Structures are given as C-alpha cells and as structure tokens.
Amino acid sequence: QVQLAESGGGLVQSGGSLRLSCAASGSTFSLYDMAWYRQAPGKEREFVAGIRWTTGNIRYGYSAKDRFTLSRDVAETAIFLQMNSLQPENTDTYYCKAEPQYCEDSWGQGTQVTISS
After folding, report:
1. What is the dihedral of CA 28, 57, 81, 73, to 10 degrees?
2. What are phi and psi of 21, to 5 degrees?
3. Above pLDDT 90, what percent of the chain?
4. Residue among 104, 83, 111, 117 at smallest CA distance from 30
C-alpha cells in the first residue's frame, strides 16, 4: 500500500497562486502513476494533472488551462502542482492519487483550495 500526505491548500484572492504538494511513502517501488484530482461536494472527482512515474510524461486536464504546472521530485517520491492565476471556479478539494503496479490505488486525504473574488 502507498500512503499519501498532501499539503499546500489554503485561501487566496483571485489571481493568486498556490503550490500543492503530495509525498508518497510505503510501497512506492512499484509506482506507475501519480495525479491530482479535484472534487466539489456532491460531484465526481475530476482529473487535473498527472505524471506517468516510469517515463516522466505529464498530462493535464481541461481545468489546468495552461495555468497549472505539475512537477515531481523522484528522490522524495513527491509531486507538486503549481497553480497560478487562480479564479473562484478553481475552488475545490484537491486530492492526490497514486497508482502502483501491484497493489490498489491510494488517495490522499484532500486539501482545500478556496479562491475569493
């Protein structure tokens, strides 16, 4: 099993920036993919950005809109999401997901991002 620890959420004004962090521990030797999702109350989780751990290939969802940048630290088994020019519609709980090859997917506890207008 992989354990995930997220941090970096908070309250910022419209146009501001936040950097989310997600550190993985446990059975990370078989890590295949890591990603960020967002979720509003009563709605399904939506893909934001992800990285194929084995190749480093990064992909973005529609909500990233060229304002978000995903990066990683291989030594720390961590990913980061730099979010710039944030708008109120970016308000959500953001979750980190790890997809190992040989065990179940893991989710973080979520970090709240709130953008005030």
Report:
1. 50
2. -125, 145
3. 87
4. 104
